Amino acid sequence: xxxxxxxxxxxxxxxDVLARGLSREFPNPERVGCPDSSILRSIASHKLPLSQAAxxxxxxxxxxxxxxxxxxxxxxxxxxxxxxxxxxxxxxxxLFAFGGLLWVRSRALPHAPDVAVLDLRDRSVARGQNPSExxxxxxxxxxxxxxxxxxxxxxxxxxxxxxxxxxxxxDQILRAMGTAQLHDHITNLRVDVDLSNVRPGAYSLGxxxxxxxxxxxxxxxx
Length: 222
Ligand SMILES: [Zn+2]
Known about the structure:
By secondary structure, this protein is an alpha+beta fold. The protein has 2 domains: 100 residues, no CATH class; 107 residues, Immunoglobulin-like, CATH 2.60.40. The protein is built from 5 helices and 8 strands, in the order H-H-H-H-H-E-E-E-E-E-E-E-E. Strands 1-3-6-5-4-7-8-2 form an 8-stranded mixed beta sheet, with no helix packed on it. A hairpin with a 2-residue loop joins strand 5 and strand 6. Helix 2 packs across helix 5.
């Protein structure tokens, strides 16, 4: 639970009381009528509601020992508030540093968002002009992709390949070339692409060895 602090007016009233207290000496060696030090402490740290604190103001302004105690507690409370502020500031700096570190790490991860991996191993191919008849959901690539990694169908040969993005009319929108290599029984083909000028929509991804026919896979650019 967070206690409401004193308003500016309330604080001013307390300071007025203190100023009056400073004007004269009020020795009270027997501590007659003094409040418990816990009350002085909670007034000094603004934890006692003003309605409960106000009755002690007259005593505070007429009892030097209480006045000195109260001043000491005020300094302590102010010091504590400063320490908490320093801790909060240090925690904020640590949080920002940690967040920055996470951000840098995420940028350095190998599967950056500009790499699109397309698994063609279990894909039906569309040899005709109507790629939507394969019964599978189309492959998907974001326009932000800069590199494509194609897992070619089982048994695909290593070597040079053409990769094309083909419109339904058969026009080539994009063309890229790469060299497929066998890794762990999968033939990988990496090509660099720039899809930033490609309109989002349905296309065919064409893959072929130079001089052979395109093998087409339905693909959606988004
Ligand atoms: Zn007193």
